[in-house]
Write a structure and sequence with these properties.
With 337 residues, the chain is α+β, with helices and mostly antiparallel strands. It is built from nine helices and 15 strands. Helix content is 30%, strand content 20%. Strand 7 and strand 8 form a beta hairpin. The radius of gyration is 25 Å and the shape is elongated.
Length: 337
């Protein structure tokens, strides 16, 4: 029997890591929650940005012209004064892309949230980019015991890292001029829509096509980000109970997010960055005491590779290590003066 047939979620690789500053980690441990945000608010502007090719350009141009010609306006629908739209390279249709993609963005922004975790804690760029230049902390989670909401796809989405976006398309009919269905002599029945091929689809089938496109975009990312080894959890706020998330809140920058609350047993590792300040570590001791099952680690630099090593230690030993590191940093800086 397959995974889908027996309805049991696939085991998720564990632990999965969330990187944060020391202050951010303290808030995560204190609130027992992680932020899930819209993919439109991610740090990569290419997230969920649909590809746009010659076929979609032609669909947008031809359907608009057909609409105006049906109304008896032969020159209507032109995008350029001389009507040579087909001769313009597709990459120059920036405004056309933006106009047609805006409804897609407007639909997903209030509805879907994504929680991003990493399958590894060793890559140095994760510490540089997401743990405040190695001064922060990585928290390891085991989500296999239903101790954290996992959204629409319980096994999560393992991100693929690719060179080009030339497979990440919205359905072709998304680029059909919006007024054309109003003058279609053979319109789709109420509750149905017509695909670009003329195929009649139920609204639920059409929604499935758009969701599959969204899922595909969330599942792929430019390959320069491959060090992240992301596992993403996708939530639908229209599902019962906000898909397992809290009500929408605003962060300090005014960005919307929803919290995914986790049980304390979900935290299985707490890893202190190489430059994590000893005072920060000391301040976290009362919070860490609430997670007795969490194994503590400090990191050291690998002797030959560009990665860190995770080294298990007791809290007092880790604190001592970081105290000595701080003294060493001060000696180096004072010697330079």
């Amino acid at each position: 029997m397959t995974q889908d047939q027996d309805n049991r979620p696939q085991p998720v690789i564990a632990p999965l890591y969330k990187f944060s500053s020391c202050e951010g980690a303290a808030e995560i441990l204190k609130s027992c929650s992680l932020w899930a945000k819209s993919p439109l608010d991610f740090n990569d502007p290419f997230e969920v940005l649909p590809a746009f090719d010659e076929e979609r350009k032609n669909m947008a141009i031809n359907s608009k012209k057909r609409f105006y010609q049906t109304l008896g306006r032969q020159d209507g629908g032109r995008l350029t004064p001389d009507g040579n739209e087909h001769e313009i390279p597709v990459e120059d249709f920036v405004d056309l892309q933006r106009n047609y993609h805006e409804p897609f963005f407007s639909a997903i922004y209030p509805r879907f949230r994504v929680l991003c975790l990493s399958e590894h804690a060793e890559p140095i760029l994760l510490w540089s980019h997401y743990a405040k230049s190695h001064t922060g902390i990585a928290i390891g989670f085991d989500v296999n015991r239903e101790n954290l909401p996992r959204g629409i796809i319980p096994s999560g989405i393992s991100v693929n890292y690719i060179e080009n976006r030339d497979s990440l398309f919205l359905p072709l009919e998304f680029y059909q001029f919006r007024g054309l269905d109003m003058i279609d002599p053979n319109p789709a029945p109420v509750g149905f829509s017509k695909a670009a091929s003329g195929l009649i689809l139920s609204n639920s089938e059409q929604q499935t096509r758009y969701f599959d496109a969204l899922k595909s975009m969330i599942s792929n990312k430019y390959n320069v980000w491959n060090y992240e080894a992301e596992r993403r959890f996708l939530y639908d706020l229209r599902a019962d109970g906000n898909g397992g998330l809290s009500d929408t809140e605003l962060d300090q920058a005014g960005t919307k997010y929803n919290s995914a609350h986790f049980a304390r047993e979900a935290v299985t590792q707490i890893v202190f960055g190489y430059y994590c300040d000893a005072d920060c570590i000391r301040s976290l001791q009362p919070l860490i005491a609430n997670f007795p099952q969490a194994i503590l680690y400090y990191v050291d630099f690998h002797p030959t590779k560009y990665e860190v090593r995770l080294i298990h230690g007791r809290f007092d030993h880790i604190l001592s290590i970081h105290n000595e590191r701080r003294k060493g940093h001060r000696r180096i800086r004072s010697a330079a003066e």
